[in-house]
Design brief:
single chain, 704 residues, mainly beta, Maltoporin, Chain A, 22-stranded antiparallel barrel, five-stranded mixed sheet, 5 helices, 35 strands, 55% strand, globular
Length: 704
C-alpha cells in the first residue's frame, strides 16, 4: 500500500509539478558559465593561494536537485557535517564544534555576500538562506582562513554568495518542483528570478515560495523569500552593490524522540512529558505538553539590507560595507520555556584597506581593517497554554556589541612560495537587562595565524598553517540555564596545526586533502540534565582535542573514452575522519572519551554520467559509522546509517529541462540530528531527530 502511494505521488510530482530555470540568451560575463546539466571535465575544487583549509562549492552541486536547505549545498564539501535538529534549520558543523546546540547558534559564522548572517548575539537562522538564489558557497574550515571573517569562532565560516546581473545563469527563469515521501507527505517550491546587465548597471532579483507537509507529525513548513541586489560601476576604481532580503518562514517543530520512540514511531512528534503512575492504577501527572498539543513551532520575519563598496583612493584599495537587519521570532516551545517572543534590530559596518609595500625587498600585500556591529532585542517569554499565550514569565532586553581589528599580509619571498600572516583583535560585550537590573559580561581575545603555500606544479600545491583562534559564548548560551541571568560561561581558545595537498592531476583527478589537529581550552559543551529534557546545560571543559582528516577527491573516469562521445563519467568522493576527545574534562568525569554527536567516519559520494549536455544520471550515497555516541560517557551508541539517493535530468532544448531527484530511496530509519547528553543511559533523553524517509522530487526548468 505504501509503495503504491509512493509511485502515485512520484508520478504526479513529475507530471504535474514542473520546473524552469534559464536563459534564452546568455548575459554578459556568463557566456562560459556551465549549464545546468553539468558538462564535466573536472570542476576545480581547490581554493588557491590560501594557506588554510578552504574551498568553494558552485551552485552546480545542487541546482539540479530539490535543494531546500543549506545542507544540500554542502554535500560535497570536505570537513562539513549537517546536524538536522529542526526541519529547515540544519546546523552546519565544521570539525565537530557545537554539534549539539539546539539554540540556533554554533561555532560556525554564516555570511551572506560577505556580510554576517549570524547575528551579533551569536545566533544563526538557517531558514534565511534560499539556495535557489545562491551562486556559490565559500567554506573556510577552522580559524586559519581569511582573518577578516574567521578567527573569532572555532569552526570557521561559510559565505553564501548571490548571483548578480552579470553572473546569473539566465536573464529570466521560472522553476516549480515538487514531490512526496513514501508516506505520501507532499512538498514543493516555486521560484522565479530576473537578471539584467547593461553598461555600468546590473541587477538580480528572485522570489521563492515553499511548502512542505513534513515526514513527521507537527512538521509542516511554509516559506516566502525575496532576494535582490543592484550594482553600479562608477568607474573601474569605484563600484558598489546593494543587497536586499525579506523572509517570512513558518515551521512546526516536531521535537526530539527517545531511542525507543525513534525506532518504533519515527514519524511521531515529541509526546507529552508525564510522571507516573508510581504504582499500578495510580495517578499520572502531566509535566509538559507535547509538540502537537502545545503547537511547538517558530514564525520568523526578517528584513535585511547590506552593501559592498570597493574603491581606490590615495594609492590604497578600500573594501567597505554595512548591514542592517530586523528580525522577529514567535516560537511556542516546551512548557519549561513557554512561548518565546523576540524582536530586535542590528547594524554593523566594516572597512579594510590594502596596499602593496616592500619589506626587505619582498613585495607584500598588506591589509588593515576592522568591523563594528551592535544590536538589541527584546526577548520575552509567555506561558504556553496549548499554543496560546498565557501570563508573562520573563521580560528581558539583550544587547551585544562586537568590535574587531585585523591585519593580514600576503607575500611571495620565493618563486612559487606564498606566505600568509595575520592577526585579529576581538572585543565582545553582552548585556542583559531585567527590570532595573543589568547583567554584563565582556570578552576580549586575540587570534593569529601564519601559513605557507607552495606550488609543486602550476595546478598542484601543498600548504601548512598554524592558527590560534578564540570564541566568546553566545547570548543564547549565556542564558540557557536562566533567561534572567548569565550563567558564567567563559570564552574558548584553540590552537590548530594543519597541512594539506590540493590540485588537479592531468585533468582527470582533483584532490583537496587536509590533516588537522586542534587543542581547545574551555570548549563549551552541551551536557543536558534529566530535568531539562533536552533544553541544554552548558559548561566549559578544561581541554579537548579535535583532530582528523578532510578529503575531497573528484575522478574523471576514462575521460578519453567518454569525451569522444561528448560525455563524461565522474566519481566524486568526500571522506571525513573525526577523532574528537576530552583530555581534561573537568568538571565532567569523562577524560579520554569521545565527544558525542559526531560519527568517527563519514563518506559521501556520487557516480554520475553526463551525455553531452543532453541528459545526465547519477547515484549518490552517504555512509556514517565507526565510534558514534549519543552521550559523552560513551555508553550509548548511535546507529550507523547508509543513505542512497539519485539525480537525473533531460534537456529537451535550450529552453526546457526536466529533472528528478530522490533521497534515502532505501527508506532507512536513521538519526539525522543528535543533541548529545552527558549520560544517555541514565537520562533516556529525547535527543534523536529522525531523518526524512524515502522521497522523490521532480520538475521542469524553462528558459525564456
Amino acid at each position: 500500500m505504501r509503495v503504491s502511494k509512493f509511485l502515485t505521488a512520484s508520478v504526479f510530482a513529475l507530471g504535474a509539478f514542473l520546473t524552469a530555470e534559464a536563459a534564452a540568451a546568455d548575459i554578459e560575463a556568463a557566456a562560459t558559465a556551465p549549464g545546468l546539466l553539468r558538462d564535466r571535465p573536472l570542476e576545480e575544487i581547490t581554493h588557491w593561494n590560501t594557506a588554510a583549509a578552504a574551498d568553494s562549492r558552485s551552485a552546480d552541486d545542487f541546482v539540479d536537485n530539490y535543494a531546500n536547505d543549506v545542507g544540500d549545498s554542502l554535500f560535497f564539501a570536505p570537513g562539513v557535517s549537517i546536524n538536522r535538529l529542526k526541519n529547515s534549520e540544519p546546523s552546519i558543523v565544521l570539525r565537530g564544534y557545537a554539534v549539539g546546540n539546539r539554540l540556533e547558534s554554533s561555532s560556525v559564522k554564516v555570511l551572506r555576500d560577505g556580510a554576517p548572517l549570524t547575528d551579533v548575539h551569536g545566533d544563526t537562522n538557517m531558514a534565511e538562506i534560499d539556495l535557489l538564489a545562491v551562486d556559490r558557497v565559500d567554506v573556510f574550515r577552522g580559524g586559519g582562513g581569511n582573518v577578516r571573517i574567521t578567527g573569532d569562532n572555532l569552526g570557521g565560516a561559510v559565505d553564501f554568495v548571490s548571483p548578480t546581473g552579470r553572473t546569473a545563469r539566465s536573464r529570466r527563469s521560472l522553476r516549480v518542483d515538487a514531490g512526496s515521501s513514501i508516506y505520501a507527505t507532499p512538498g514543493g517550491q516555486a521560484h522565479v528570478d530576473l537578471a539584467h546587465a547593461s553598461g555600468d548597471l546590473d541587477y538580480f532579483a528572485s522570489f521563492t515560495g515553499r511548502y512542505e507537509t513534513g515526514f513527521r507529525d507537527n512538521s509542516q513548513r511554509a516559506d516566502a523569500v525575496f532576494n535582490a541586489n543592484l550594482g553600479y560601476e562608477f568607474s573601474p576604481a569605484f563600484t558598489t552593490r546593494f543587497f536586499v532580503e525579506a523572509l517570512r518562514s513558518d515551521i512546526e517543530l516536531a521535537g526530539g524522540l527517545t531511542p525507543a520512540d525513534a525506532l518504533a514511531s519515527p514519524s511521531s512528534a515529541a509526546p507529552p512529558i508525564v510522571l507516573g503512575p508510581l504504582f499500578p492504577g495510580g495517578p499520572v501527572i502531566g509535566l509538559a505538553g507535547g509538540a502537537e498539543g502545545d503547537e511547538w513551532g517558530r514564525a520568523l520575519i526578517t528584513g535585511r539590507i547590506s552593501n559592498q563598496t570597493v574603491f581606490r583612493l590615495l594609492g590604497l584599495d578600500f573594501d567597505t560595507g554595512f548591514h542592517f537587519t530586523h528580525r522577529r521570532i514567535d516560537s511556542p516551545q516546551i512548557d519549561f520555556v513557554g512561548i518565546l517572543d523576540q524582536s530586535g534590530n542590528e547594524w554593523g559596518a566594516n572597512l579594510a584597506a590594502t596596499t602593496p609595500i616592500s619589506l626587505f625587498n619582498i613585495d607584500v600585500d598588506l591589509t588593515i581593517g576592522g568591523s563594528y556591529a551592535t544590536g538589541s532585542r527584546n526577548s520575552d517569554r509567555f506561558e504556553n497554554i496549548d499554543g496560546a499565550r498565557g501570563v508573562v514569565l520573563t521580560q528581558t532586553t539583550q544587547k551585544s556589541t562586537n568590535i574587531t581589528g585585523f591585519v593580514d599580509a600576503v607575500l611571495e619571498p620565493f618563486k612559487n612560495l606564498i606566505v600568509n600572516i595575520g592577526g585579529k583583535f576581538v572585543r565582545t560585550a553582552r548585556d542583559l537587562d531585567v527590570a532595573t537590573n543589568v547583567d554584563e559580561a565582556t570578552f576580549t581575545g586575540v587570534s593569529a595565524r601564519g601559513g605557507v603555500t607552495y606550488k609543486l606544479t602550476q595546478r598542484v600545491q601543498i600548504f601548512a598553517n598554524a592558527a590560534r583562534t578564540y570564541e566568546p559564548p553566545s547570548m543564547s548560551e549565556l542564558v540557557s540555564d536562566d533567561p534572567e541571568a548569565f550563567n558564567g560561561l567563559d570564552e574558548q581558545d584553540a590552537f590548530t596545526i594543519e597541512a594539506g595537498l590540493r590540485g588537479e592531476l592531468n585533468n582527470w583527478i582533483g584532490l583537496d586533502i587536509t590533516v588537522f589537529n586542534t587543542d581547545v581550552e574551555g570548549e563549551i559543551i552541551n551536557i543536558e540534565e534529566p530535568e531539562t529534557n533536552g533544553l541544554g546545560t552548558f559548561v566549559n571543559t578544561e581541554s579537548t582535542t579535535h583532530k582528523g582528516i578532510e578529503a575531497g577527491i573528484d575522478i574523471n573516469l576514462l575521460p578519453s573514452r567518454f569525451a569522444a562521445n561528448g560525455g563524461s563519467l565522474t566519481l566524486r568522493n568526500v571522506y571525513n575522519y573525526n577523532d574528537f576527545r576530552f583530555n581534561n574534562a573537568n568538571p565532567l568525569s569523562v577524560d579520554g572519551n569521545r565527544l558525542a554527536g559526531v560519527p568517527q567516519h563519514v563518506y559521501r559520494g556520487e557516480l554520475r554520467y553526463d551525455a553531452d549536455g543532453r541528459w545526465f544520471a547519477g547515484v549518490n550515497v552517504e555512509l556514517a559509522g565507526g565510534a558514534f555516541f549519543a552521550d559523552h560517557e560513551n555508553t550509548v551508541s548511535v546507529q550507523s546509517h547508509a543513505l542512497v539517493g539519485f539525480s537525473a535530468g533531460w534537456r529537451m532544448n535550450d529552453n526546457l529541462e526536466f529533472f528528478a531527484s530522490g533521497e534515502n530511496i532505501l527508506d532507512e530509519n536513521y538519526a539525522a540530528g543528535i543533541t548529545p547528553v552527558l549520560s544517555q543511559a541514565a537520562q533516556n533523553g529525547r535527543i534523536y531527530t529522525p531523518g526524512d524517509r524515502a522521497t522523490v522530487y521532480g520538475g521542469m526548468r524553462v528558459r525564456f
